[in-house]
Design a protein that fits this description.
6-stranded antiparallel β-sheet; alpha+beta; 5-stranded mixed β-sheet; single chain; 6 helices
Amino acid sequence: MRLPATISALLLTCASPLAAAASSWGFADATISIQSKGAGVGTGLKENLSESKALPKRVELGPADTLKIILTTQEGKSAKRPHQAFLSVEDLSTGLETSFPLSVKESGKAKLELAQKDIPTQLLTTSDLLSASLIIASFGTSSPYSSKAFDLAIQTDPNVPAPKSEKPLRYGKLSEIHHIFRADPKSPPKIISLVFTVLVLGALPVLLGTWLMLGANANHLSKALGNAPVSHGLFIGAIVAMEGIFFMYYTAWNLFTTLPVAATAGTVIFLSGSRALT
């Protein structure tokens, strides 16, 4: 009695993968409709799509039309969302092909809306019928579905110029680029520089005269220089050097030459001034 039971169990075990492998993807409750812009609901084409055979008559898509496909994807007999579901449109005379993915919910309800603006120029300008196929597939052992659904005819507006395809981007050697840099800043006219130089130099006697009128005490100068001759010498020399740096920047140097020299002179002024002025 055990032998038949064992054989039955083995047969069931072997039959399970075969049954799973026998299932395939497909669809049900599929309809295709053409809705023209400005037309009432239900006035355009509406046909049912079949898994087993293509639509016998062609579907015409005008410049103001929208093609709409609604279906339910199935794995075997159960409604299910596949990994891929799209409509493939191909020009059989040239071999050019493009795909339009369907929007699929978890319940398997799928929808696609297609207008002429969504179709590539190469297929939009053809005079031949386009072959439209539905492709549904996913991971697992179930067989994918791929079959022709209908023929699509593009009806363009004769009063509108045919769209031109853009030249594809190709990577390669480009022409040489010649950079145009901004010209170096120029100094102002010499007459303006001379006027301001005279004004600055003319202010020095006024400064000295005001200093003497206010009773400035210069007697302490010799004592200060005697106590810290090096600090005072470096301090006064660095100040004069800083003025010379500004002059060189104004006449010949650029910013990158001026900054390191000015930083050195400023450091000397700070260190020597802290000793000379205490």
